[in-house]
Structures are given as structure tokens and as C-alpha cells.
Amino acid sequence: MNLRESFISKFAASFVKPRFEIWFAAVLIPENDQAFWVRYSTLNPRNNRDLFPMGTLWVSLFDRKNPKNHRTTTQSFPYEEVLIKEHAIEFPEAAVGPDHMSGKIQTSMSEDLAWDLEFRHKLEPTGHLPRWLEKTPINHIWGTNRVSELFWT
């Protein structure tokens, strides 16, 4: 499997649903005692669920020296605004690909958080499961569970 094959999104494909995919990066900036976290996610649920196909962008900036500078924001976009291209998935004002992440998002304080990251890979990705398993519908149990004060549905 090469880098591009490992990245190609099934978001636009309909052979496996529900489909939830995540790409993220955590970047440490030691000279400033800061860290930056960005996450792109896509959701393509079954038609009979109370969920809608969408893309979501999550961004956080952490400042160890000055915690009042911490910023966290998220924004969701309808499926029609998320473009699946050959080498990238494009969100409004943001994109993620096998060798880059870029974007800009506004915080609740009307500030822009912007990033432009480029990756140079030394190794090709490794598949941990048989390729046929990606296309196999796997049963999923829906419901509400409780684990030590954590809840999910």
C-alpha cells in the first residue's frame, strides 16, 4: 500500500456505511512552550440514522507559559461543502492530504488560527488488517453505555 492509497477517503464512497474518518496532527513548538492540535473528520452515516453527512474541523492552541492564550474551536460543514479531490479533502478554508494540512478557522474571540503544515515521509504506511476487511460490513452495537462517569451514544 502506498501513501496515496492509504489516504484515499471512503467518505464519498457508498459501499461501506457508516463511515467515520479522522486525520489529525499534534505539533509541539518547544521554543515557545506551545502545542498545536488540528483534526479533520468526515462522517457518512447510514441513511436511516439521525445523523447527517458532514465534515468537522477541530483546532486547539496550547500555551504553557501563558494559559490565557489557549484557544480551542470547532466548525462543522455539510457534506456538499466538503470536496473529495484526488490528493486532498477540502473543507471551506482548510485542506488535508497525505503530505499536508492547511487551513484557517476563526475562534469565538474573532481571532484567526491558521496553519500550513507539510510532511516528508520516510516510510510507507502499513496495513494492519486484510484489505477485504475494509469492505466487510461489521456489526455495531448502538446504545448508551456508562463507563466510570463517561457516557456515549
Structure in words:
It is a single chain. With 153 residues, this protein is mostly beta strands. The protein has one domain (3-152): Beta Barrel (AttH-like fold), CATH 2.40.370. It is 3% helix and 45% strand. The protein has one helix and eleven strands. A five-stranded antiparallel β-sheet has the order 5-6-7-8-9, with no helix packed on it. A hairpin with a 2-residue loop joins strand 7 (94-97) and strand 8. The model has no long low-confidence stretch (mean pLDDT 78).
Order of helices and strands: HEEEEEEEEEEE
Specify the helix fraction band: under 10%
The global form is: globular
Count up the domains. Answer: 1
CATH third-level topology? AttH-like fold
Order of strands in the sheet with most strands = 5-6-7-8-9
CA-CA gap between termini? 34 Å
User: Which parts are unreliable, with pLDDT below 50 for 5 consecutive residues or more?
Assistant: none
* Count of extended strands: 11
What's the helix count? 1
Which features does this protein show?
11 strands, AttH-like fold, 153 residues, mainly beta, four-stranded antiparallel β-sheet, 1 helix, 3% helix
Summarize this structure briefly.
The protein is mostly beta strands and 153 residues long.
SSE layout and pairing:
Elements: H1 3-7, E1 19-29, E2 34-44, E3 54-63, E4 71-78, E5 83-84, E6 89-91, E7 94-97, E8 100-106, E9 112-118, E10 145-147, E11 150-152
Antiparallel strand pairs: 1-2, 2-3, 3-4, 5-6, 6-7, 7-8, 8-9, 10-11
